[in-house]
């Protein structure tokens, strides 16, 4: 499971550096930007899973107050920062994937695109099936 996370992390990391090069911007914190992006996507996935599960069970699992949902999901940011920065784990991940990037580039990009599209599609399904939830209020 962490190998998939590492592949997605490294693809976002490379994308962040590539965009910075395209616009001739010097990124000071590309790893932190990737951690925040992954936190956002992970948070959306958790909201989606809990929302769809609530729709299947017929009762809401997430609280109606938006602030409570944000408080419940805030540890995701810390978890993503830990997964990337704890004991400089990012160095190991970047070293592992940088040498094999050219061989695995297409697969990693496809995996990341699939992850992003599935996140968006399932979130749209949640919105469609949970029209009375706090998302619409």
What does it look like?
This protein is mostly helical and 137 residues long. It starts with a helix and ends in an 8-residue tail after the last helix. Helices cover 80% and strands 0% of the residues. The radius of gyration is 17 Å and the shape is elongated. The chain has helices spanning 2-22, 30-57, 66-73, 75-85, 89-129.
Largest sheet: none
Mean pLDDT: 87
**Helical content class:** over 70%
Structural class: mainly alpha
Low-confidence stretches: none
User: Can you count the helices?
Assistant: 5
Listing every helix as H and every strand as E from the N terminus to the C terminus, the arrangement reads: HHHHH
Radius of gyration of CA atoms, rounded to a whole number: 17 Å
Taken as a percent bin, the fraction of beta residues is under 5%
What sort of overall outline do the alpha carbons produce when their principal axes are compared? elongated
Task: Please give the number of β-strands.
Answer: 0
Ends apart, CA distance between termini:
35 Å
Topology:
Elements: H1 2-22, H2 30-57, H3 66-73, H4 75-85, H5 89-129
Helix pairs in contact: 1-2, 1-5, 2-4, 2-5
Key features?
137 residues, mainly alpha, 5 helices, elongated
Short description:
It is built from five helices and no strands. It is an all-alpha fold and 137 residues long.
């Amino acid at each position: 499971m962490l190998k998939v996370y590492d592949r997605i992390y490294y693809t976002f990391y490379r994308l962040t550096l590539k965009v910075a090069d395209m616009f001739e911007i010097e990124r000071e914190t590309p790893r932190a930007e990737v951690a925040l992006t992954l936190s956002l996507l992970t948070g959306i996935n958790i909201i989606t899973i809990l929302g769809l599960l609530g729709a299947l069970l017929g009762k809401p699992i997430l609280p109606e107050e938006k602030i409570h949902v944000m408080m419940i999901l805030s540890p995701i940011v810390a978890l993503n920062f830990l997964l990337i920065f704890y004991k400089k784990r990012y160095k190991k991940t970047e070293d592992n994937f940088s040498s094999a990037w050219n061989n695995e580039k297409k697969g990693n990009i496809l995996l990341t695109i699939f992850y992003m599209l599935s996140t968006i599609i399932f979130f749209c399904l949640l919105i469609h099936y949970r029209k009375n939830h706090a998302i619409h209020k």
